Structure formats: C-alpha cells, structure tokens
Amino acid sequence: MRVIAVVNQKGGSGKTTTAVHLAAVLAARKQRTLLVDLDPQGHCGLALGIAPARIEKGIEDAMQQGSGTALLDDGLFWEPAANLVLAPCTIRLAAFEAPGGPLAEAHDRDRRLSAILDRVAPRFEWCIIDCPPHIGLLVFNALRACDEALIPIETGYFALRAAERQVATIRAVADRLQRAIAIRVLPTLVRKDSPSSQHILTAIDRTFGNTVIPAMIREHDVLREAAGFGQAITEYAPTSEARRDFEWLAEWLITNPVEAQRSEGVSAGTDRTNPDAPLMAKLAAPRTNTRTVDPPLIEVETLSVNQAQSPTAENRLAELAERLRAAR
Ligand SMILES: Nc1ncnc2c1ncn2[C@@H]1O[C@H](COP(=O)(O)OP(=O)(O)OP(=O)(O)O)[C@@H](O)[C@H]1O
Ligand SMILES: [Mg+2]
Asked: pTM value?
C-alpha cells in the first residue's frame, strides 16, 4: 500500500479537494483506495455525501484504541464508491491535539495512524490522508505513516512566499521525524487565463525544481459544485476537464513509484522509541493561517429534512441544482 499525505498548513490550499478526487480517480481505475480524513473539519465525508450526523465511529476512535481495534473490521469504514473506502472522522478528532488530549501520555501517540495502516495495508493499494491546516499531532501521525507528502500549492497572489515556508516546514518536520518522505509539490487552483497564475506557476517550478509534479489542478467551478452535491468528480462530472486533471495526476503518481525516489530513512512503524517529544512540543503551535472555506452547498442535505414543511425550499433547491448542472 502506497501512503500519500496531502499536507499544507495553509488553509484552503486544495488539500481536501486533491485528496478526495485523487482517491476517487484511483478507485475508478480499480485500485483499492483508502481515504483517511485526518482533519477534524470532516470535509472528506461531506465531499463524498456522508452527513456528519451519520458518522458514529471515526478514525479518532481507532487511533485511540490502537492497532488491535475491532473497528477496522466493523463500523469505521464507508464505501462511497466501488474500490473507494473512507475512514471518516468526527469532531472528536480535534481533542487529540488539545492539551491533555486522549493520547497526551501515550509514548506512541504520533504512531497510532501508522500502526493502523500497517494492519490494513494488505487490503489496499493506496492510502490518501487528508491533513488539517496546521502542524500538530495529527500531521505528525500522517508524516509518520506516509511514504510521500503531496503539498498542494495555490497559485494565487502572495502564494509563492508562503509556499516556500510551507514546503520548508513540512520538510523540516519529516527530517526531524527521521522519515525519508518524498516531497511532491502540486500546483492547484491554477487559473488558465490568468497571467499572474501562470507567472506563479513558473516561479513554483523555478523554486521547487523537480519536486514539482508535472501536473496541475486548474480552477474548475465544477469542483466546487461537486463538493456541494457531495459527489466525487468521477460521479458528478466524469467527462469534465477537472476529472482529466486528476487523471493526469494519478497517472503521474502511478508511473513514478516512490521507491525509486526514496533514499534513506526509517520506514513507517519500524522505530520503537519516541525521540520527538521536544519537536512536537515546539511545533504544536496554535492554529494559524486557517480560513473558512466557502459555505458548502451540502447544506442542501440538511435543508432537505425540512422540505416536507416547505415546498418553496424544495423548488428553490431543484432550481439551484438545475442552474448548477446547466452551468457545468
Ligand atoms: N481546483 C479547484 N477549483 C475550484 N475550486 C477549488 C479547487 N480546489 C479547491 N477549491 C475550492 O476551494 C475551497 C478550499 O479547498 P479545499 O477545502 O480543498 O482546501 P483545504 O486545503 O482542504 O482547506 P482546509 O485547509 O480548510 O482544510 C473549497 O471551497 C473548494 O471547493
Ligand atoms: Mg481540507
């Protein structure tokens, strides 16, 4: 199983969008893919049409119980599409990083995810981890568990300077965790017709050299719509340009296996001591640089509960859905 952490401490850089649709495209290629939602915001579940209220058990329960948990066989996994399995989270995941959280005293607190993935590895060919927009225990768990870190970099104004810092931080954390992780930079939210976006793209190439994947995710309204409808791009717009971008990314990853790029280091789950306590304390800073995402249209699902009382709401929702489909 090849494990990719989609990570960037910058909020709204396209992590969840990348994680969800990359996983969906891999699954559509008949590759058994596990998507792990390691962000307490729980956006992966929403993006795949699973309302938070339906999720009883989350990855936090499995991490708390440890690798022996029965949850892995019963109650944790959802299968929103063929070959696509989601390990969702609930808001309880946020408590993990709080002072005195459930794993605060556990010596292996940054290896819990890695141990779980070791156990389920025979079932999957890929595991994609969606990380939260800050560095803390959850990101340590992801970087401990992964073979490569996929860093989506937004090609907007001011993005480049921030990007250098973001990539340097992730590299530093990976180094300190003694993990030889392949770092891959992925330009996202690229605006085809925008000179500034193109300019930043060139600058990203110049700055990050061959860590930049020769693929990019352009800005596509259909990706926002798909999130609103709670569907992966493979389902919502299977013939779209947006899907093509993710197919290109998947193709590149498949043809560039990580082993070839790994040089040294400790593989997931093999080290037994915890040399990272000082680093974790230092880096577990309060959340910075986060921003709220656009209000998700997934509210549609919440609203539909009230449809019986309000026929007007139903009409408006149908109209909205029609307008969005037409706009594709
Ligand atoms: N390529 C794209 N085209 C159009 N919209 C996009 C694209 N990528 C992301 N978005 C939109 O931008 C917003 C932020 O994206 P996303 O949630 O994937 O970022 P994130 O890095 O996961 O955010 P957070 O840090 O809050 O977890 C969302 O509304 C999403 O629908
Ligand atoms: Mg996200």
From this structure: 0.81
